[in-house]
Amino acid sequence: MLRKDKEITDKKIIDEILNKSQICRIAFFDVEFPYIVPFNYGYLDNALYFHSAANGKKIDLIRKNNKVCFEIEYFSQITVHELPCEWTTKYRSVIGSGNIDIITGFEEKKKGLDIIMAHYGSIKNNVYNTNNVDNIVILKLNITGLSAKQSGNWDNESKPHLT
């Protein structure tokens, strides 16, 4: 990382970013250009979980090459200034890489859905429609590398309240 003063190395803060953010963007290898897709997700045990249709471009790309990059942004706030070059952004984010497995077993898909649902606040006994579960796959991104970064004064300013 070029700006070591912005690097986050505290595992607790990195876990907060992974646990409290809402959207994960994944970049897949495509022939000429990367293909990036935003996802709702769940995080558990150094893995990210996503639900997906069982067919389509991203599934085809994963089957060709399951190595991906991802980005998760925890908080973003633009700070304006009367001088254009003095504008700044306060944020925390992670960028990582990993390998995606396509999960097709019924019980494993339900477990993945439970992880995703828990990420957004549903910790009760989730009941899933069998046809819905049959028609999706769970994508499990096993994280192999990760870096985290922040900008803005997080120590002396009020912290964002994200649920």
Could you walk me through the main structural features you see in this protein, from its secondary elements to its overall organization?
- The protein is of the alpha+beta class.
- It has a single domain, classed as Electron Transport, Fmn-binding Protein, Chain A (Pnp Oxidase, Chain A, Roll), CATH 2.30.110.
- The protein is built from 4 helices and 8 strands.
- The protein has helices spanning 11-20, 57-64, 106-119, 130-134, and strands at 7-8, 24-28, 35-39, 42-44, 47-53, 67-79, 88-103, 136-151.
- Strands 1, 2, 3, 4, 5, 6, 7 and 8 form an 8-stranded antiparallel β-sheet that branches.
- It is globular.
- The two termini are 29 Å apart.
- The mean pLDDT is 88.
In short:
This protein is an alpha+beta fold and 163 residues long. It has helices at residues 11-20, 57-64, 106-119, 130-134, and strands at residues 7-8, 24-28, 35-39, 42-44, 47-53, 67-79, 88-103, 136-151. Strands 1, 2, 3, 4, 5, 6, 7 and 8 form an eight-stranded antiparallel β-sheet that branches.
